[in-house]
Hints:
Elements: H1 2-19, E1 33-43, E2 49-58, H2 60-69, H3 82-88, E3 103-107, E4 110-111, E5 113-114, E6 118-124, E7 130-139, E8 147-151, E9 158-161, E10 166-167, E11 175-179, H4 183-197, H5 200-203, E12 217-221
Parallel strand pairs: 1-9, 1-10
Antiparallel strand pairs: 1-2, 2-7, 3-4, 3-8, 5-7, 6-7, 8-12, 11-12
Helix pairs in contact: 1-2
Amino acid sequence: MRSYLRVMSVRAALFVAACVVCMALPLGAHPHIFVDAGLRLILNAEGRLAAVDVTWRYDALYSMLLTEDYGLDPDHDLRLTPDEIATALGFDLNWSGGFAGGLVITQGGAPLDIGPPMPVSLRLLETGQIETVHRRPVLGAPPMATLEAQIFDPDFYVAFEMILDLDLTDAPGCSADLIRADLDAAYGVLEAALDAIGGAVAAEDNFPPVGAYFADRVVITCPG
Length: 224
């Protein structure tokens, strides 16, 4: 996924430069892609967390590039045919470069074992944005109690915001609180990290792994 995102982000940068010539992005600027995220918890018959459906909704510019790259919606009616969906479904699950999908779930302070992704759906919204859903199995989860979930790219190449729905239909006794990232503190960490490696120019090929500092956090409280 990482190599593909980098190619697409270059095309995005060229598009922005051509359309908005008065704007100049700082050298080595991150992030390049913006994704709104949401979760759906899936419990097994024993009431333990068995899987999580993860929704990624891409920003409008990147979505436009995706539709062009995959030949989606050529009639511009904002509806994808089954063949178009089959062509692109799972495009964003071919992860590489150490990226493990961005989802981290902890219970009792210990990270849960999360398996590889399986594509679930892909659709084109009325806003022109591409939205995908993939499922991550959760292996050996203990009985439900308080969970904490985050979605982030450690390299901050992709900026995730967990502002989409958190579906607890399968866990009706649970409640959730969204704790937004402290962006002032995160940018302070980023500035210090850039200074330590020689500034934004050096960061072009050696960007510090600060994504976790920019990550929203969802606290899910369940009886038990």
